[in-house]
């Protein structure tokens, strides 16, 4: 399911699961419901819109990501409820000088070179957030 999740991000779609037992929406997709632990799940397409709840600028990146620093990591609450993490598509300077919490964003996928610890050695897809407000 994760391969499909990342491939769909590259196509501009955000997929998740909805629990048919309790109605909880999850993203990224998981094999059991976060709320009731049920497995009666349905794949759904989410809007991809949400709001930044928190973010940080990474200046000292982990091994394999050094060339990408500095970059901004954000936690976003989607309109449908789930919270997902990804990179905010803004300069580090802007993130440091402005308060981006509460900004409306749209998620998309961006392909980066794979690295030593990433499971897919052909490509690495990162959820990205574009500020739309």
UniProtKB/TrEMBL annotation:
A Pfam family recorded for this sequence: zf-ChsH2
SUPFAM superfamilies found in the cross-reference section: Nucleic acid-binding proteins (SSF50249)
ChsH2 C-terminal OB-fold domain: residues covered: 45-108
Domain ChsH2 rubredoxin-like zinc ribbon, residue spans: 8-42
Top-rank lineage group of the source organism: Archaea
InterPro entries registered for this protein in UniProt: ChsH2_C, ChsH2_Znr, NA-bd_OB-fold, Thioester_dehydratase-like
Name of the protein this chain belongs to: DUF35 domain-containing protein
Origin species: Archaeoglobus profundus (strain DSM 5631 / JCM 9629 / NBRC 100127 / Av18)
């Amino acid at each position: 399911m994760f391969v499909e999740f990342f491939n769909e991000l590259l196509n501009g779609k955000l997929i998740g699961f909805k629990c048919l037992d309790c109605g909880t929406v999850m993203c990224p997709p998981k094999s059991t419901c976060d709320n009731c632990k049920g497995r009666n799940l349905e794949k759904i397409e989410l809007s991809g819109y949400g709001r930044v709840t928190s973010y940080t600028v990474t200046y000292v990146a982990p091994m394999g990501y050094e060339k990408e620093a500095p970059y901004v990591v954000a936690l976003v609450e989607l309109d449908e409820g789930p919270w997902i993490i990804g990179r905010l598509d803004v300069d580090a300077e802007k993130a440091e000088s402005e308060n981006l919490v509460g900004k409306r964003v749209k998620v998309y996928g961006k392909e980066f070179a794979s690295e030593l610890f990433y499971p897919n050695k052909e490509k690495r897809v990162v959820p990205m957030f574009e500020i739309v407000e």
